[in-house]
Amino acid sequence: MEWQKKLEILADSAKYDVSCSSSGASRGKSQGLLGTAAAAGICHSWSEDGRCISLLKILMTNVCIYDCAYCVNRVSSDVPRATLTPSEIVDLTLNFYRRNYIEGLFLSSAVLVSPDYTMERMVEVVRRLRTEGRFNGYVHLKAIPGADPRLIAEAGRYADRMSLNIELPTKRSLNLLAPDKNPDTITAPMAQIRNTILETRSDQNRFKSAPSFVPAGQTTQMIVGATGETDHLLLNLTEKLYQRYALKRVYFSAYVPVVQNHPVLPGQVAHPMLREHRLYQADWLLRFYGYTAGELLDDLNPQLDLELDPKCQWALRHPEQFPVEINKADLMTLLRVPGIGPVSARRILKSRRFSALRAEDLKGLGVVMKRAKYFIQCSGKRVETLNYETRILRPLLVREEPLKLQVPSSQISFFDINPGLWIPPAKEVIVT
């Protein structure tokens, strides 16, 4: 099979893996080395300054020994198969980089022969890129659950970021849809990577010449909607993953039916991308706004409201917290106000040191007044005098948030003559 055909198959097979984003790693120019990795990020995604970042995102192989019900590459699936050798991947990455097609590599793989066999070949790719190709660009490597810890440790010496997919939220779901996989083989290498990162950083604090290990950290991904877990369970799991494994990101992948009439899989799921979007907004609140999973959802409110962002949903359930006095509230209290984000909250703190703020000043500071006006007051004067009753405010907030998600029909390909322009579902949405 020609390499072009292999690349078409393996790039298409990789489109369901969403756990790639800004790298967070910096590699400057070095004499005798090829390429750089900028902290702005490397991927087919959108950076913070609005640039589209490109990388070679492929599977090493889509030949798999497992029969996961939700996966298009499962062993029982009748799809075209292909495998790239380590030499082919190295050559493709270097040649595409020299032609300015890409800025880095995102390499994942199905499990070929065994976890150790697959991981060994992936490590060979990144080792040869760094040592023989002198490649100094960004590399995100998927670790294979069940692989020897020594292979995981070696991979971390060459990769900027590593990730392991947790796949499904519970052990019961994993046993149902992916009985060949064991949750312990996923969490054990996550703990190993976390511990080695912490040890390496400690060494680097003492010795500047200490080698780095996965400097951009690790991430994971879970499928949402293939089984019946609530958003409450998903957010609690997300919170625990951040706390236990110091992850950079938890990614959510809306379940896409790739198997027709499967006895244990749902058919068409209602609004899968909208639910994914709400989970990303809730994840943002966990990471940057000081919320806990238990505050956002509980046993009485186990699902996120698809019509309202999670912050507005929380605010409507806690009328006792409002109105917030703009000229006196601290940072964390300001961040609880719908329409106020981290940037606008800090601008408020800075500006009010010189004079009391009025309602008409807030828009210029970045406050989204169409939401914030219901929850704030300035110098004791309410901006909007409506009561905090859900039946009154909810229709108004829903009306102010028209949400339109455009979903691509396929991953952008190197071989598209005119792929067109599409706006991806937001993975880095700042909730205000």
From TrEMBL:
<dbReference type="GO" id="GO:0051536">
    <property type="term" value="F:iron-sulfur cluster binding"/>
</dbReference>
<dbReference type="InterPro" id="IPR023874">
    <property type="entry name" value="DNA_rSAM_put"/>
</dbReference>
<keyword id="KW-0408">Iron</keyword>
<dbReference type="InterPro" id="IPR013785">
    <property type="entry name" value="Aldolase_TIM"/>
</dbReference>
<dbReference type="InterPro" id="IPR058240">
    <property type="entry name" value="rSAM_sf"/>
</dbReference>
<dbReference type="InterPro" id="IPR007197">
    <property type="entry name" value="rSAM"/>
</dbReference>
<dbReference type="GO" id="GO:0003824">
    <property type="term" value="F:catalytic activity"/>
</dbReference>
<protein>
    <submittedName>
        <fullName>Putative DNA modification/repair radical SAM protein</fullName>
    </submittedName>
</protein>
<keyword id="KW-0479">Metal-binding</keyword>
<keyword id="KW-0949">S-adenosyl-L-methionine</keyword>
<dbReference type="InterPro" id="IPR051675">
    <property type="entry name" value="Endo/Exo/Phosphatase_dom_1"/>
</dbReference>
<dbReference type="GO" id="GO:0046872">
    <property type="term" value="F:metal ion binding"/>
</dbReference>
<keyword id="KW-0411">Iron-sulfur</keyword>
<dbReference type="InterPro" id="IPR010994">
    <property type="entry name" value="RuvA_2-like"/>
</dbReference>
